[in-house]
Specification:
flat, 767 residues, seven-stranded antiparallel beta sheet, eight-stranded antiparallel barrel, mainly beta
Length: 767
């Protein structure tokens, strides 16, 4: 026996709902085609768990129907494996074996893996396309070693045949070895890995004429901090009918505070997912059972329950003000708990574990007539790709925080999800829903959780003129300073608590900070955003206050910011014109000769994204023509889909709007990919941003973008009269009122906003 394949070669199933539905339908059709055979129920134990990890003792349990057709000594086996979650399998083949009456065995040839061997060497089970690689699926037999090698891998000892021992009455088939499916490439017979591999403890049992019911798992336990009085906890189970007749189901529950959901009917040879709901009303230990019975002589199934219930969480620990008026309730399955072991102070934390799970906390309260309610909380969300938190007020979205909010640029993050809601008379429910779509290791660790604290409900009398700032401080963070002044804008949000409209009359700035008086006013309970600007021309730390003067009083915003010297001199890439640069931290772009490139080149992925920004100013009366040269060389993981998904590659934007993606080996990312109009800029400051995203599993090619020959040519344009004061924002529109990134040929509308609040609107003709 040869030890030539290892446990590390485990493929990952594609389990999206749509794909799974396609696959299930295909398998069902295959089973229907074999109804002239004999139905056998397979109870198998996989060497791999639900997450694709190898396990000698805790492999996934699988239960499904196979069909055997006997023709003399010839045996044809259909559906020997449960492939319902593998939508990538395109073709299936039946497996042929030989029945030996004297020895009571069925033998199926299983030629061992030979590196480079073609498909005709093996017993084939099907074909598949795995991430663009066409593969055939071979049936192999054998057992994994019980001890790992020096690399922690378990080798597969293979046999030339898969032998089943057959009972005298043909009711039970027992394999002498394990057996499974291995994917190998059609091009060169390379091993891509195992789809599944069942242990020799698996059995095939002839299906009886009557319904035969069973459940998986047969025992459901409710344990852990989330199991508390007042919670509504849900666990799943699968009801299985291993018989050849349909059964009508009834459930008799002999368990305290347990509800068992069961299907009304279950067809022959079928599996149906159902659930158990536990709503404990007391603390302590629980135990009980439920009997699921079928009509027409069906054999019943027994489902057992155990649990240990804790006291209800004391959410008053995380309430700053209003504990008498805010009532907290828990959601199904994975409620929130209160702990101080994670953050050092009491927080309400989500508890869901596993993929496609949710954890809900509901805050319920009323705002009486004649009052204004101000409800706030502080919170942190640690997230990873496809996971996040969704916060709703009476089913209307307040915050959606997940990978898509970041444009898929980040795979992990830690966000402040604090917020303040101003509410008029009524009843309210705030839902904090922690959503985990992918938890491969079933850990529910801290990077998948939501933390909430300092809940605060204030009720105050409503007057004609009253307002509040949602946040009275703004941190502009740290910026790199190069040639041009650093500019940034954040928003201070004023909420109108009064019955009359709220209007900003003036704004007084301090030092590097100023503000823009909004033109509009806001009605009662509305939010009025106020742009607070920062501009500084030197390295250093800056603090200041901005006073917003309104018809409801004055409001002060404390501001902080910091400028640091840019760590790399990028002027070597400039061919013509004046540019000021900015780059990413902690991975600034590097410079070699006259070329800038991402310093992350060659590193593992780990979300090491980086950018380089080049800013320039076009004077009044001039038009700027921008150009550059760039080459992208990266592997795009989804290249075979004939689309640029850009797991690794370059995204270039002009003034934060016009965007193009570049991925692949030696791809031209130069300005020649834009039209002349798109590269023509009106007076004012503009920025081109080169962003290199790294998310591929293994860096390939040069793994970089190279930028050089950056150029700005200024030509005479139509000059626009300049109003007095400092311009803080310039907006360009076409005659239809649509916003533009830069001047377009013909008539443009240019709107300039100044620091003192004045707005200048002019027609500008660009040639």
């Amino acid at each position: 026996m040869a030890q030539t394949l290892s446990s590390s070669k485990a493929l990952t199933a594609e389990k999206a709902d749509g794909q799974k539905a396609v696959s299930t339908a295909r398998v069902a059709q295959k089973a229907d085609d074999a109804t002239d055979g004999v139905g056998y129920w397979v109870d198998a134990t996989n060497y791999f768990d639900a997450n694709g990890s190898f396990s000698l003792t805790n492999g996934e349990k699988e239960s499904f129907r196979a069909n055997l057709k006997f023709d003399g000594n010839n045996v044809t086996v259909s559906n020997l494996f449960d492939t319902s979650e593998w939508s990538i399998i395109s073709t299936y083949y039946d497996i042929n074996g030989t029945y030996d009456a004297a020895n009571k065995t069925i033998t199926i040839k299983t030629p061992r893996y030979q590196e480079g061997a073609s498909a005709d060497h093996y017993t084939l089970y099907g074909d598949m396309n795995y991430y663009g690689e066409q593969c055939f699926i071979a049936l192999l037999a054998g057992d994994f070693d019980t001890t790992p090698d020096e690399n922690g891998q378990y080798g597969l000892y293979m046999t030339d045949s898969l032998v089943f021992d057959v009972s005298d009455d043909f009711t039970t088939l027992t394999p002498r070895t394990g057996f499974g499916l291995w994917a190998l490439t059609e091009s060169d017979g390379y091993s891509y890995g195992s789809l599944m591999f069942y242990t020799k403890n698996s059995t095939l049992t002839k299906m009886p004429e009557e319904a035969l019911l069973s459940v998986v798992p047969d025992t459901i336990s409710f344990e852990g901090a989330s199991v508390s009085v007042g919670a509504s906890l849900q666990r799943s189970y699968t009801l299985i009918n291993k018989g050849l007749k349909e059964a009508t189901i009834s459930a008799v529950v002999n368990a305290e505070d347990i509800q068992v959901a069961a299907p009304r009917t279950i067809g022959p040879g079928s599996k149906i997912d159902a659930c158990v709901v536990f709503k404990p009303q007391r603390t302590g230990s629980y135990s009980g059972s439920a009997t699921l019975s079928g009509n027409n002589g069906a054999t019943s199934a027994k489902l057992y329950f155990t649990g240990t219930v804790n006291p209800a969480p004391d959410f008053s620990q995380v309430v700053k003000e209003g504990s008498e008026t805010v009532n907290f309730s828990l959601g199904d399955d994975f409620p929130y708990v209160v702990t101080d072991t994670i953050t050092g102070y009491p927080v309400a934390v989500s508890t869901n574990v596993g993929s496609n799970t949710q954890s809900h906390l509901f805050a319920n309260f009323d705002v009486p007539a004649g009052k204004v309610g101000v409800f706030s909380w502080k919170g942190i969300k640690e997230g990873s790709y496809s996971n996040g938190v969704k916060i709703y007020l009476n089913d209307d979205s307040v915050i959606t925080n997940d990978a898509y909010a970041f444009g898929m640029d980040q795979t992990t993050w830690k966000d402040d999800i604090s917020n303040t809601l101003v509410l008029q008379e009524g009843s309210y429910r705030v839902d904090y829903n922690n959503v985990t779509q992918m938890d491969f290791w079933n850990t529910g660790d801290k990077t998948l959780r939501t933390y909430l604290y300092d809940f605060n409900l204030q009720l105050m009398d409503q007057t004609a003129h009253a307002a509040m700032l949602k946040a009275d401080s703004l941190d502009f963070g740290s910026h790199y300073f190069d040639k041009l002044s650093v500019r940034d804008t954040l928003t201070a949000n004023l909420v109108n608590l009064g019955t009359e409209p709220l209007k900003v009359m003036a704004i007084e700035g301090d030092g590097a900070f100023s503000g823009v008086v909004p033109e509009n006013e806001v009605e009662s309970f509305g939010t009025l955003p106020v742009a607070i600007t920062y501009e500084a021309e030197n390295v250093g730390e800056y603090t200041g206050e901005v006073v917003i003067k309104t018809n409801a009083g004055d409001f002060t915003v404390s501001c902080t910011a910091k400028n640091e010297a840019i760590p790399v001199d990028y002027q070597a890439i400039v061919k013509n014109g004046k540019f000021s640069f900015n780059t990413s931290d902690p991975y600034p772009f590097a410079v070699e000769a006259d070329t800038a490139y991402n310093s992350t080149s060659g590193m593992d992925n780990n979300n090491k994204n980086s950018f380089l920004e080049a800013s320039f100013e076009v004077p009044e009366g001039k038009v700027g023509k921008l150009s550059w040269k760039a080459i992208n060389s990266s592997h795009d993981f989804f290249y075979f889909m004939n689309d640029t998904v850009m797991t690794t590659g370059t995204r270039i934007t002009l003034d934060g709007g016009m965007m193009k993606l570049f991925a692949g080996k030696d791809v031209d990312a130069s300005s020649t990919n834009w039209t002349a109009d798109q590269l023509t800029f009106a007076p004012g400051r503009h920025t081109v941003r080169y962003y290199f995203k790294k998310a591929d599993s293994t860096p390939k090619y040069e793994d970089k973008v190279k930028i050089f020959d950056l150029s700005l040519d200024l030509t005479t344009g139509i000059s626009t009269p300049t109003a007095e004061g400092k311009a803080v924002r310039t907006e360009i529109y076409n005659l239809g009122g649509q916003a533009q990134n830069q001047l377009q040929r013909g008539v443009n509308i240019v709107k300039t906003t100044y620091a003192d609040g004045r707005v200048d609107v002019r027609k500008v003709i660009a040639k």
